[in-house]
């Protein structure tokens, strides 16, 4: 009581010009001289190489298609292939979908990544909507065609990106989130045996689900659904896998930042004293949510002070401690973490959990190509409110600029709402017990 709390700012200044920690996401980087499809050497030229790669996707030999996808991924990752996309969009999309339908796990992983990079290149609009509509069924079927971690992780990342860019309303976003949640927490059917996913798959699914949740400001799922989601995410905080704990902590922080559970508590307050059956159910649910809040607070406190064990990476342990200190400060006092990342001498800032989750996800997906993309992509610049130092570097102006602007305004709505909220609004220790 009466104590002054000074907001702690977590400023991670990383100059992309000097940062060598990023790992390239493609297993092949085109040299300045040549690339190889099968046994045929192709002299390197940006346009001709891309065309050669497209042609190679029609080959029967899977290894040839894989090498072509590797070359395309490398090209997309480090340069916005805008003119190429305008001319070859439909061909590339359909060939990648064919690779997902009939290819090996490696080919499916590469094709999924290509589709995600294609979506970020075209930006919001008719093309991105078409990508989501045509990809959702093949991706869903591929999830059920095997449980290899690398394949499932690539499919999840692809679904997250194409939904983020191309979804035309909350219903489409919710559909993708439901697919992800079924992977996170598979439920048994009458004649179905649920296979427990690996820790990396659950971690990626939670991160992808959270990434899409950042676009769902104002979403009103049932209180039962929120309660189930928070209960399960809380259980992941007790998991042995550190990455899974961090992903679950971010997801829970986002849920509280959106105020969804607090809104439910406020709405149900008037029914707590009701003596009818529905009133009694509400009272039980209210009590359960209040208990969950306390449990999550204690879990965050423990994880922020966890001691290192045998075989524990010091870097990973410090990442966990720092992250859950952020969670703890947010849950107790309402202060979200603030980060700053320097790209080409210009600061990119995040001020909310929503922004931080979007940034972290896209950095992981683009790897070493993130700095290049955000300096050239109008869409990503609008998402993060980022203006590069030399605007004449921007290579891409979306042909669907009106749609682009409307979509990014929707994505940024939560940014403005979150920044304008009063400190303490999100604090889970401020309940209705004393009302």
From TrEMBL:
Residues 378-418 form the Interferon-related developmental regulator C-terminal domain. Pfam families: IFRD (PF05004), IFRD_C (PF04836). Residues 22-332 form the Interferon-related developmental regulator N-terminal domain. It comes from the Eukaryota. Belongs to the IFRD family. PANTHER family: INTERFERON-RELATED DEVELOPMENTAL REGULATOR, INTERFERON-RELATED DEVELOPMENTAL REGULATOR 1. This is Interferon-related developmental regulator N-terminal domain-containing protein. The lineage of its organism: Eukaryota, Viridiplantae, Streptophyta, Embryophyta, Tracheophyta.
């Amino acid at each position: 009581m009466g104590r002054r709390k000074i907001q702690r700012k977590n400023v991670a200044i990383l100059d992309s010009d000097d940062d060598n920690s990023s790992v390239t996401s493609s297993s092949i980087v085109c040299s300045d001289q040549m690339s190889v499809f099968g046994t045929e050497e192709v002299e390197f030229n940006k346009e001709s190489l891309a065309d050669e790669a497209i042609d190679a996707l029609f080959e029967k030999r899977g290894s040839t298609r894989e090498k072509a996808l590797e070359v395309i991924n490398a090209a997309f990752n480090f340069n916005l292939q805008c003119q190429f996309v305008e001319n070859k969009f439909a061909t590339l999309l359909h060939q990648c979908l064919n690779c997902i339908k009939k290819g090996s796990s490696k080919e499916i992983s590469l094709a999924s990544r290509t589709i995600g990079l294609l979506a970020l290149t075209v930006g919001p609009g008719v093309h991105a909507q078409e990508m989501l509509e045509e990809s959702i069924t093949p991706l869903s079927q591929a999830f059920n065609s095997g449980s290899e971690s690398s394949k499932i992780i690539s499919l999840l990342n692809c679904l997250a990106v194409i939904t983020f860019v191309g979804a035309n309303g909350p219903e489409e976003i919710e559909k993708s989130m439901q697919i992800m949640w079924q992977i996170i927490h598979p439920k048994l059917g009458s004649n179905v045996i649920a296979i427990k996913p690996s820790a990396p798959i659950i971690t990626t699914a939670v991160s992808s689900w959270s990434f899409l949740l950042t676009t769902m400001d104002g979403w009103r799922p049932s209180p039962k659904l929120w309660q189930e989601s928070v209960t399960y995410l809380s259980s992941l905080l007790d998991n042995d896998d550190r990455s899974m704990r961090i992903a679950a902590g971010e997801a829970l922080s986002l849920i509280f930042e959106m105020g969804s559970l607090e809104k439910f508590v406020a709405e149900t307050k008037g029914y707590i004293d009701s003596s009818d059956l529905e009133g009694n159910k509400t009272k039980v649910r209210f009590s359960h949510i209040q208990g969950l809040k306390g449990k999550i607070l204690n879990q965050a406190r423990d994880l922020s002070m966890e001691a290192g064990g045998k075989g524990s990476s010091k870097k990973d342990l410090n990442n966990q401690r720092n992250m859950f200190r952020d969670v703890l400060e947010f849950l107790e006092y309402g202060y979200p973490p603030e980060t700053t990342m320097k790209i080409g001498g210009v600061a990119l800032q995040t001020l909310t959990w929503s922004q931080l989750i979007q940034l972290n996800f896209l950095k992981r997906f683009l790897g070493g190509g993130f700095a290049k993309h955000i300096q050239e992509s109008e869409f990503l610049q609008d998402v993060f409110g980022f203006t590069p130092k030399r605007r004449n570097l921007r290579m891409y102006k979306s042909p669907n600029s009106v749609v682009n602007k409307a979509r990014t305004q929707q994505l940024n709505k939560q940014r403005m709402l979150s920044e304008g909220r009063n400190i303490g609004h999100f604090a889970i220790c401020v309940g209705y017990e004393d009302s």
